[in-house]
UniProtKB/TrEMBL annotation:
Belongs to the NAD(P)-dependent epimerase/dehydratase family. Residues 4-220 form the NAD-dependent epimerase/dehydratase domain. It comes from Butyrivibrio hungatei. This is Nucleoside-diphosphate-sugar epimerase. Pfam families: Epimerase. It comes from the Bacteria. InterPro entries: Epimerase_deHydtase, NAD(P)-bd_dom_sf.
């Protein structure tokens, strides 16, 4: 069977690529600009192209058909419209990577199923994913376009620590704050529930949907079964670092407001996603992919990540601006507490 991935070298997709590279049933092609070719397994074939150059992509795919096409870098309707033009009649299944952040905010229930309403007034990213889903399902209903929708939640790999609050340069500065004995900001009171999925576990669910006729015209959320509070997540990271966690809890609403002044989109990332408790009911996925389960719990996954991060610190950039932001927020809130108590 032949599959084409657009992108294919990101956090979610690389776990799938590595799994398929070891599966003799699949012949896998990646279409991207070739920026991370050294990390792609030898068995995977590369098509070097910019997916936004539609005419060039048409030429390079001339005469090719696929059992599965999946676009890992489609974030707006114009992208899936382009994919529809390119792959209608050329694939037996088109898998769209949506997002679990598309589910209704504020949440009507903390238990999420594929039938939960899609609506997110806080985050444009999520609204764009919803619009993409609506376009593709319309094409399925009207023209039989063989779409499958996948909704990941918080998926991580061996290069990225999953956090609730971090700066524009990623998680690394938060890890440094922990190592330096500084307080780290956690949204809310740290008790809201969250699901984390290592990308190799995600790949089990995803590959189980590939070529599966029961998946056509359907949406599936793919997450691990492990549910943790945000305090537990940060405490697990601190334990792996062998440091004391100095948690400083700040309301998500306050972070959303103050973050805008410093260029941080906490409104979308917190109020539109991570501030809300979620427990995903994965019954629908497990019905057709029964092998889907959590094989790499967070306490193991985070140690794998830190092994890489601490031995490859040159790959990560410090973020002094976010460091100052954290100190300012904590100092301002401590001053406010003192005034209230006086």
């Amino acid at each position: 069977m032949k599959a084409l991935f657009i992108g294919g070298t990101g956090t979610i997709s690389m776990g799938i690529v590595r799994r398929l590279a070891e599966d003799p049933q699949w012949e896998l092609y990646l279409l991207n600009r070739g920026n991370r070719m050294s990390e792609v397994p030898e068995a995977v074939k590369q098509i070097i192209a910019d997916i936004n150059d539609e005419e060039d992509v048409k030429k390079k795919l001339d005469g090719m058909t696929f059992d599965v096409v999946s676009d890992f870098i489609a974030f707006d309707v114009s992208s899936v419209e382009r994919d529809y033009r390119l792959f209608e009649g050329r694939t037996n299944q088109y898998i769209f990577i949506s997002s679990a952040s598309a589910y209704n905010k504020p949440a009507a229930s903390y238990v999420i199923t594929e039938g939960t309403t899609l609506a997110n007034p806080y985050w444009e990213y999520s609204r764009n994913k919803i619009a993409c889903e609506e376009f593709l399902l319309r094409k399925y209903r009207e023209n039989g376009f063989p779409v499958t929708i996948v909704r990941p939640s918080h998926t991580y790999d061996e290069r990225h620590i999953p956090l609730g609050v971090h700066g524009n340069k990623g998680f690394y500065q938060v890890i440094k704050r922990m190592q330096e004995g500084k307080p780290v900001i956690i949204q809310g009171d740290g008790s809201s529930l969250w699901a984390l999925t290592f990308n190799r576990d995600f790949a089990i669910g995803f590959t189980g949907l590939m070529g599966n006729r029961h998946a056509i015209g359907e949406a599936f959320q793919i997450t691990g079964d492990e549910i943790l509070t945000w305090d537990q997540i940060y405490r697990t990271i601190a334990d792996a670092l062998s440091v004391e966690l100095k948690a400083y809890h700040v309301s998500s609403e306050f972070l959303a407001d103050v973050g805008e002044k410093y260029g941080y989109d906490f409104r979308g990332q917190l109020l539109g996603d991570k501030a809300v408790s979620v427990v995903f009911d994965n019954t629908k996925l497990k019905r057709i992919v029964p092998q889907m389960t959590t094989n790499i719990p967070f306490n193991e996954g985070v140690r794998r990540v830190l092994d890489h991060v601490l031995s490859h610190s040159e790959e990560y950039e410090e973020d002094p601006d976010f460091d100052k932001f954290c100190d300012k927020v904590i100092s301002a809130l401590e001053d406010a507490k003192k005034k209230v108590l006086e």
